[in-house]
Amino acid sequence: MELKRVVVTGLGALTPLGNTVSEYWNGLVNGVSGAAPITRFDASKFKTQFACEVKGYDPEQYFDRKEARKMDLFTQFAVIVADEAVKDARLDDESLNKERIGVIWGSGIGGLRTFQEECVNFANGDGTPRFNPFFIPKMIADISAGHISIKYGFRGPNFVTVSACASATNALIDSFNYIRLGMVDVVVSGGSEAAVTEAGIGGFNALKALSERNDSPATASRPFDKERDGFVLGEGAAAIVLEEYEHAKARGAKIYAELIGGGMSADAYHITAPHPEGLGARNVMANALKDSGIRPEEVDYINVHGTSTPLGDVSEAKAIEYVFGDHAYNLNISSTKSMTGHLLGAAGAIEAVASILSIQHGVVPPTINHTTDDDQFNPKLNFTFNQAQQRDVKVAMSNTFGFGGHNTSVIFKKVTE
Amino acid sequence: MSEIAEKVRAIIIDKLGVEESEVTPEASFTNDLGADSLDTVELIMEFEKEFNVSIPDDQAENIATVGQAISYLEEHAK
């Protein structure tokens, strides 16, 4: 059977750099850091006391108080960005067949704050179980997709993918597959995460995964820099409306880009460390290229996973050289996590938006905070350090890799016809 | 109005996000105040916490209106 084409027709974003897609993009191209001291709890006893939080967030700007109380922050973020994307794509159109609109979302963790609070309440009591009836439906990761479907009446396939930091990219790939197989017309995809809590920071600190540069949060996320010392936890969400090309054309939808391929692989090596030679990363990029049917030389930009950890950045760079050969040195590579921090299960969503907008605007956002070269990286690789670069991006790849050794990669292409 | 009635009304206004004027003695949580089954469970839990009582499930089923909640708690609150 012939596979259908899939295009992007709507975007939404709520990020540490800005609370809409346009604010987010402005932050990205201007090289703004979203990192600052933690405000969500007292972090004074934690090794890491900063994070990339969403700024100026007031749930009552988006929800009535009763509605907000029944959603964990990660679901509030999901509903907000879905709303921006639904309006952007004009899916709030009663003539659309809502049986054929799905919601496939990604979240690595789900309602961590809800889980933490309910367990603390129980532990502080006398052993009598007094769990809130909204505890479970606030905490479970899939409730984000549930809320979005309830709000708009989208009755197509509805679920959430969980693959740690690859979650949202897995959601995009699943959405892509359902649409190209002709099972649905439209999927509201994306991801959200809100893990800046005591358990989140404490847990990642225990793994020695986070930067501890408390004296300079804004320069802590420095992928591919010699002085990198771990990732910076971020929170937020992004939504991407994926739609079958003919369906989009027929209703005159605005088309941002085409999603032409997705790749998946596993490291099968270690629960948290990447394969030293980047075997899984190699395979996933090769799989995505094969799926998209393009040659490696056609890729202009890779929005890398690049979390700013000592090991991960090295294995990903090696994998790029392996897969792209000499073309690796013609690529623009950047890690927008240098600005946004690492949004875990939502990373693939906000980075897909960055990749799509790089195609739309012909600008590659930078990898900020580079001061010192690390001889583990080939100096011929262009990491787009510190300043955005103009480039007519026709094809952009977005990589995300998750704890557990899950690797995902998607490829977006400029739509000329 | 008794102190208990004041507190009951305040809890209902807070948890169900309704206007004070809607919280009449006859108002039913589900039919008039927009509560679903989970909201009702949460309300009963809040009453238990606020008034330091334990409301058995078979009695909780009979608390469906503002007035029923007030009279139950006036009788049982410690």
TrEMBL record, chain B:
Pathway(s): Lipid metabolism; fatty acid biosynthesis
GO biological process annotation, one example: lipid A biosynthetic process
SUPFAM superfamilies attached to this UniProt entry: ACP-like
GO-annotated cellular components: cytosol; membrane
Keywords linked to the UniProt accession: Cytoplasm, Fatty acid biosynthesis, Fatty acid metabolism, Lipid biosynthesis, Lipid metabolism, Phosphopantetheine, Phosphoprotein
Sequence intervals crossing the membrane: none
Post-translational modifications: 4'-phosphopantetheine is transferred from CoA to a specific serine of apo-ACP by AcpS. This modification is essential for activity because fatty acids are bound in thioester linkage to the sulfhydryl of the prosthetic group. 4'-phosphopantetheine is transferred from CoA to a specific serine of apo-ACP by acpS.
Modified residues (O-(pantetheine 4'-phosphoryl)serine): S37
GO molecular function, one term: phosphopantetheine binding
PROSITE patterns for this protein: CARRIER, PHOSPHOPANTETHEINE
Similarity section: Belongs to the acyl carrier protein (ACP) family.
Protein's recorded name: Acyl carrier protein
Organism: Rufibacter latericius
